[in-house]
Design brief:
The structure holds 2 protein chains of 2 kinds. Chain A is built from 16 helices and 5 strands. By secondary structure, chain A is an alpha/beta fold. In chain A, strand 1, helix 4 and strand 2 form a beta-alpha-beta unit. Chain B has a 5-stranded parallel sheet. In chain B, helix 3 links the parallel strand 3 (about 65-75) and strand 4. The longest helix of chain B has about 130 residues, at about 350-480. Classes of the chains: A alpha/beta, B alpha/beta.
Chain lengths: ~350, ~475
């Protein structure tokens, strides 16, 4: 949960515990809404069978721990989904694919309205035998898909961060530095004659696969003293997981921001049906809520790499409002425009509170 | 290639109903290598060519429409199991060919290719039972190219199978007959009818929205014009009044008499200007609202400058008399003062002083009376001018309002006429579309009836072909086993 959403939720809780809300008929709906606002963010990891959704969830679970309080929950959703079940609506959609984006994946991408991230898993197996190497091939492939789908697309080798290298494996890899094994194919690697025992070779193959193994051997050739932890972290750096986690963090911050917007609009709907309309209206437009909304928007913008100037000088509030007004009017999508509008509203409230005058 | 076997197959169908033929698929002696995107079909085709001398290896783009290969090699990647879209691709590739070899590629880098292959076999068999018996192979094109020789052997074996051509032809027939069964009755007519219905709806909507748009535009533009024109006339009268008022401030005595005429001529000018401006503006609106459907007509309501009487500058007898009295006493006082001054300074010149005093007194008296008269005239003229201009303004405002109202009435009538014309046009278009729709419906009904008549024969032919194919495949399997 982002800091801004925490502030928003605290404001919401204070509102929900007011005595009149307990007493009025229909107040239960407000209470339920507030409780639901604190649910963990649902991050759906979707993918066809065999593309490695489970290992992506494993890798993300290790590198992107849920924060204290209601964080996010990674949920595995197969493609195509069970036709009998309702389609799963998530707050953030991560679509995993391998090698090529199939029509089934595209359908999922088009159907989803949540913030999306596209992951090309098994990036170390892209274009095997190509002159430029699998990783460059995967990066250029991702760039193409990104341009085509307008969704951030990143390469990943999800099984690599999950590898638990031990000294035995490192020793075996060191043996292969001196005396290279046959790596022309996975079968040849296991069946060839080599001083490393077949069981160990199978284990290495199973956990690392050929390309990361090649990387590890290359690293050991450069630095023969490298131990298991150092090698693990090196391989982890090479797996692309950090870039993926950054992008997912952005999407999650956006997800929280959208959750905040959804809660406010639900609250307005409840007010429109006649349950405490005045109180809800004054709450939704109160300084606290507007400033909390701004903080959520600032979190989302910061996570997306757009710096927000947050100084307390009255003129800076006004300057920020002007700046984000221009931003919201510019060529940005609806979510960013809403973010800009929220920052403008919050800044103007802060400006007025600080004694600013038009 | 039209052998006796082909003719035998065709007869099988054509004896049921000669209307079902011809097949429209020509068997081409080539092996097609295709696959899902990025699975490596092109590379495989290129690698297969040198190993299969004497056999033509093609890719889908090398075949024209209506050409079918004798055997299909479908390549899917060992990355992940088949998806429904891949199954659709396989079905499309093997629509007119019964001999299919499925290949899992890139087995040199995928450890789990054997599991993927088993899974693919299950998925494809589940997708269509005709694929349940096909052979699956794992192939890599890199390094020692494991599996490639097996694939070449398998392709050769498939090509040498007896009755392969017959089987392929039967498969093509099955695809064609099934396609005939699956075509929805109004597939072709339905699209046309939908298009017509959309056109009809669009025409009605266009006419309706055009009508309301015109009404709205008229109302807006008339309200705007009323505002603009009233303001224009008021401003024009105001500025002319200001000019004349400035003239009055510098008016000479001899110009007083002609001032009334000058004001009248300026009024006539102003009226003409306002008329011209109003007519131009209204003509513009008329053209805009009616979109030049109706020629501009001139109105009989022309403005006439209001009658303005002469300024009442002459009727001032009492005041003249009073001023004369004032002047006389003032002059007398002046004469006395002058004569007394002269007598005091030069007692010898007292008579001359008296004479000079009398003359000076008389001159002062006359000038005073004249100037006072002029000032009085100016005041009177100013007041009169104010009244006249007020009258002119009221008249022009009234005229402009009346003219705009007249215009509005006339444009409303024009709009009704335009709506009538549009409605006529719409009725004609809708009638045309309706008749086309009726025709389409009749065609559909006819086609459906025809199809329903053909349906039993298609079913019968399909059953026959399928039975024959089963027999052939069964005998093949017996031979291989």
């Amino acid at each position: 949960m982002t800091r801004g959403f925490e502030v928003f939720r605290a404001t919401l809780d204070r509102f929900a515990t007011r005595p009149e809300i307990r007493q009025v008929h229909g107040g239960q709906r407000i209470h339920d809404l507030v409780v639901r606002a604190g649910d963990p963010l649902r991050v759906a990891v979707r993918g066809r069978a065999g593309v490695g959704v489970t290992s992506v969830i494993g890798a993300l679970g290790r590198t992107l721990p849920a924060e204290d309080g209601p964080g996010h929950a990674l949920i595995e959703v197969p493609i195509p989904e069970d036709e009998a079940a309702d389609p799963f609506v998530a707050d953030v959609d991560i679509v995993v694919f391998a090698e090529a984006l199939k029509p089934e994946d595209r359908v999922v991408l088009e159907a989803s309205t949540a913030p999306k991230v596209l992951i090309l898993n098994k990036a170390d197996l892209t274009d095997p035998g190509g002159a430029r190497g699998p990783w460059s091939a995967a990066v250029s492939c991702c760039a193409q898909y990104r341009a085509e789908t307008r969704v951030p697309t990143l390469p990943l080798s999800a099984h690599v961060p999950l590898v638990s290298l031990d000294d035995g494996m490192v020793e075996a890899l060191k043996l292969m530095v001196e005396n290279p094994a046959d790596t022309s194919s996975v079968d040849a690697f296991v069946t060839c004659t080599h001083e490393v025992p077949v069981a160990m070779r199978q284990r290495i193959l199973h956990e690392l696969d050929l390309y990361p193994m090649g990387c590890a051997i290359g690293a050991l050739r450069q630095v023969p003293t490298l131990a298991a932890p150092g090698l693990s972290s090196l391989l982890r750096d090479l797996s692309g997981i950090d870039a993926v986690v950054n992008v997912i963090r952005t999407a999650i911050a956006q997800g929280w921001y959208r959750r905040m917007r959804a809660v406010l609009s639900d609250l307005r709907k409840i007010g429109a049906t006649g349950v405490l309309p005045m109180q809800i209206d004054s709450f939704v437009n109160s300084d606290d809520v507007v400033v909390a909304a701004m903080q959520c928007a600032v979190d989302a913008a910061t996570a997306a790499g757009i710096a927000v100037e947050l100084s307390d000088h009255p003129e800076d509030h006004r300057y920020r409002a002007e700046h984000w007004q221009r931003f919201a009017a510019g060529p940005v999508n609806a979510t960013y425009a809403a973010m800009g509008a929220d920052i403008v509203r919050g800044s103007l409230r802060l400006w007025r509170r600080a004694g600013g005058r038009a | 290639m039209n052998t006796s076997a082909d003719r035998r197959v065709d007869e099988l169908v054509l004896t049921v109903d000669p209307g079902l033929g011809p097949l429209g698929v020509e068997l081409h002696d080539a092996v097609m290598v295709t696959g899902s995107w990025l699975a490596g079909a092109s590379t495989l085709a290129a690698e297969l060519k040198p190993r299969m001398s004497g056999v033509r290896i093609v890719e889908p783009e090398d075949l024209r429409h209506g050409q079918a290969p004798v055997a299909v090699v479908f390549v899917c990647s060992g990355t992940a199991p088949l998806t429904p879209s891949d199954c659709g691709l396989i079905q499309l590739a093997a629509a007119n060919t019964d001999a299919l070899i499925a290949v899992v590629s890139k087995i040199d880098v995928h450890q789990s290719w054997r599991e993927v292959m088993e899974r693919n076999r299950e998925i494809l068999a589940q997708h269509d039972s005709r694929f349940s018996g096909i052979s699956w192979l794992g192939v890599s094109t890199r390094g020692a190219a494991p599996g490639l020789d097996e694939l070449a052997r398998a392709v050769r074996k498939v090509r040498e199978e007896p009755a392969l051509n017959e089987r392929n032809r039967l498969r093509a027939w099955i695809t064609r007959l099934q396609g005939m069964l699956n075509v929805p009755p109004e597939a072709c007519e339905g699209a046309r009818a939908d298009e017509l219905r959309n056109q009809r709806q669009a025409a009605v909507r266009r006419t309706r929205s055009g009508k309301s748009e015109r009404t709205l535009a008229l109302r807006n533009r008339i309200a705007q014009a009323r505002m603009t024109l009233l303001y224009f006339s008021r401003k024009r009268v105001g500025s002319v009044g200001g000019e004349l008022r400035e003239d009055i401030a510098e008016l000479k005595r001899r110009d007083v008499a002609g001032f009334g005429d000058r004001v009248r001529s300026r009024m006539a000018e102003v009226v003409a200007e306002v008329e011209q401006g109003t007519e131009e503006h209204l003509a513009e609106i008329s053209a805009e609202v009616t979109q030049r459907w109706v020629a501009p007509r001139h109105s009989s309501n022309r403005p006439v400058p209001p009658e303005a009487g002469d300024p009442p500058v002459r009727s001032r007898h009492l005041e003249t008399r009073m001023m004369a009295l004032f002047g006389v006493f003032f002059g007398l006082g002046a004469a006395l003062t002058v004569s007394r001054l002269v007598a005091y300074a030069r007692p010898g010149l007292a008579p001359v002083g008296l004479a000079v005093g009398l003359v000076a007194g008389a001159v002062i008296a006359v000038w005073l009376v004249a100037v006072r008269g002029l000032l009085h005239d100016r005041t009177v003229l100013d007041r009169w001018l104010g009244d006249t201009m007020g009258e002119l303004r009221a008249y022009l405002e009234q005229w402009v309002a009346a003219r705009v109202l007249e215009m509005e009435t006339r444009l409303n009538a024009d709009l009704v006429e335009i709506d009538e014309r549009e409605n006529d046009k719409l009725a004609a278009r809708v009638g045309q579309i309706d008749s086309e729709l009726r025709e389409a419906a009749m065609n559909t009904a006819r086609a459906t009836a025809l199809r329903n008549r053909d349906l039993p024969s298609v079913h019968k032919a399909l059953t026959k072909v399928a039975e024959r194919l089963d027999v052939l495949v069964g005998s093949d399997e017996n031979m291989t086993s």
